[in-house]
Design a protein that fits this description.
The protein is mainly beta. It is built from one helix and 15 strands; from the N terminus they run ββββββββββββαβββ. It starts with a strand and ends with a strand.
């Protein structure tokens, strides 16, 4: 990451050692900064978040499409929302992170077929997991095969706790 001392704008970039082109900026979603957190196995896709014209929004970047916003789970009545992508599976087809609606933060799961979805809802409805009392606040990593996700949340006792979910 580079911080321009004049504008204080944070920018992310890739370093292309194979093509000898040096550093390549990834851009933003229209705002003043972007931050990268995860990269696919072959390095073709990068995830993170960028400031857009109003909020922080999760993104997926590739060399063909550039930076694409992934959206938000929900926003409150004031339109306050934010999302951050933290990790991507090896083939780049699944992304995890968190989304904030102005009131609370919730873990998300993204794929190209259905877009961003609540991870708790996905685990409950699609996989039949019993998650009563749990609040999944963040999905911080996904395995290379996309079948195991870890993160943090609030357990039924009201305590912050790490969790692991297997989608098998």
């Amino acid at each position: 990451m580079y911080v321009n001392e004049v504008t204080k704008a944070r920018k992310i970039f890739t370093i292309d050692t194979l093509g000898k082109e040096g550093i390549q900026g990834l851009g933003t979603l229209g705002g003043s900064y972007s931050i990268a957190y995860g990269i696919s196995a072959d390095g073709s896709k990068i995830v993170g978040y960028s400031h857009n014209d109003r909020n922080e929004e999760a993104f997926c970047w590739d060399s063909t499409k550039g930076m694409q916003g992934l959206g938000y789970l929900k926003s409150n009545k004031d339109g306050r929302s934010a999302s951050q992508a933290y990790d991507i599976c090896a083939d780049g087809s699944k992304i995890v992170g968190k989304s904030y609606n102005g009131t609370y933060t919730e873990a998300f799961y993204w794929d190209s077929a259905k877009g961003m979805r609540s991870l708790k809802s996905l685990l409950s409805k699609d996989f039949g997991l019993k998650l009563a009392g749990w609040t999944l606040t963040e999905a911080s990593a996904i395995s290379d095969d996309g079948l195991t996700i870890v993160g943090k949340g609030i357990d039924p006792r009201g305590l912050e706790e790490a969790w692991i979910a297997r989608l098998e």
